[in-house]
Design brief:
This protein has 370 residues and is of the alpha/beta class. The chain has helices at 98-111, 124-136, 150-158, 170-183, 196-202, 204-212, 229-244, 263-270, 296-306, 315-327, 338-348, and strands at residues 4-6, 13-14, 31-33, 71-74, 83-87, 116-120, 139-145, 162-166, 187-189, 220-224, 252-258, 310-313, 357-361. Strand 4 and strand 5 (83-87) form a beta hairpin. The radius of gyration is 19 Å and the shape is globular.
């Protein structure tokens, strides 16, 4: 397979494989990269995620029509003189942005010979993996936190995914998934938080935003952060577009977490290079309840590289943002209301300059928790 798994912090690189690997020097998950192709925007063909196939591994796509989600201008910033756009990621096939990562990861792992894919998930990533595994003719085994929402569990089961409920905090599901893969060589750990292929699929969100804005990068993107793949996909995607000369800047990317579980915000405020584990409290934003993201060091580096902010919002702010979105016709799950809650606080604080453009991904459907 073309390209390499590379370390985001040093010059380590290795050939792609179905097995997850960490940098032997830095101890962090790797990401996938290949030489930037010589391409112009007018050379792009098709729609959705695979419109940007030239920037992805050369594989036979496993696709359900992911990507190509609308960019909708919102009224919320008008009184502040700020243009705000919702990126409607909850309209992806399984109802969340995770379809972008799952489509590419399953395609690549099938190409590399995998048969049974394993992940740990609070629901959305599990649903995406189950759906795309079914489309690829592969088996999916999901280690799911016992507190995950019922509708998400039913969705995984409907796609034929094998469910393994795990009691305890979110990391317990991760440990059980890793243990199962270590004990059975037929299992491939398809971690949505650590897979280089999953992260590469998420870069396409940046490509779409830029193209929807006539190849202009927005001034800001406000993103929810749990495992951090969405924020990093945006960062690497816009970085690639800048290297091509297709955009003139990388937007400031801001991270929003729930106050009940905000390891990135805490590390950012204290000036740490990587987050320390926190004791996760209860939050309606269950999909972002990750006490120590595997790519935490990478997330903090990306935040600082773009000049972004990190903020933690209360349960009341999350629920208020969710209600206001619903009353405007957009029904999202509580985790997807994290970034809109952060946006509302930043607007009220006068953080954005008049005339600036802000994009906020709406990451998951409200039907996920209904």
């Amino acid at each position: 397979m073309e390209g390499f798994f590379i370390c985001p912090f040093c010059d380590h690189r290795e050939e792609p494989s179905p097995k997850l690997a960490r940098c032997p020097r830095c101890g962090v998950p790797l990401r996938w990269e290949k030489p930037v192709p010589s391409l112009r925007p007018e050379d792009l063909r098709g729609r959705g995620l695979w419109r940007y196939a030239a920037f992805l591994p050369r594989v036979s796509p496993v696709t359900l029509g992911e990507g190509g989600t609308p960019l909708l201008e919102a009224k919320v910033g008008a009184s502040f003189g700020v243009r705000v756009f919702w990126k409607m990621e909850f309209l992806n096939p399984t109802g969340s942005f995770k379809d972008r990562g799952a489509s590419l990861m399953v395609s690549a792992l099938r190409e590399l010979g995998a048969k049974i894919l394993v992940d740990d998930s609070s629901g959305n990533a599990g649903a995406a993996l189950a759906a795309y595994s079914a489309a690829a003719g592969l088996r999916a085994r999901l280690f799911v936190p016992a507190y995950a929402s019922g509708p998400k569990i039913r969705q995984i089961r409907a796609y034929g995914g094998e469910l393994v409920p795990v009691e305890g905090p979110r990391p317990a599901a991760t440990l059980q998934a890793q243990k199962a893969c270590a004990e059975n060589p037929d299992l491939v750990y398809a971690s949505h938080n650590a897979s280089p292929f999953f992260l590469a699929g998420l870069t396409t969100l940046a490509f779409e935003i830029a193209e929807d804005l006539s190849w202009q990068a927005p001034d800001h993107v406000v993103a929810p952060v749990g495992g951090g793949g969405l924020l990093l996909g945006l960062f690497y995607g816009f970085s690639l577009l800048l290297s091509l000369g297709w955009v003139k800047k990388i937007p400031k990317i801001h991270a929003v977490q729930a106050q009940a579980c905000a390891p990135i915000v805490l590390a950012w405020e204290r000036g740490y290079a990587e987050p320390e584990a926190v004791e996760p409290g209860e939050t309606v934003a269950e999909g972002a309840r990750i006490p120590r993201p595997e790519r935490g060091r990478e997330i903090l580096a990306a935040l600082r590289a773009t000049g972004g902010q990190a903020l933690a919002v209360s349960e009341e702010e999350i629920q208020k943002a969710q209600r206001e979105l619903a009353q405007s016709g957009l029904y999202v799950e509580p985790t997807a209301a994290l970034a809109p809650a952060g946006l509302l606080r930043l607007l009220a604080a006068g953080f954005f300059a008049r005339g600036e453009t802000v994009v906020v991904p709406l990451t998951g459907s409200g039907l996920k928790t209904s």
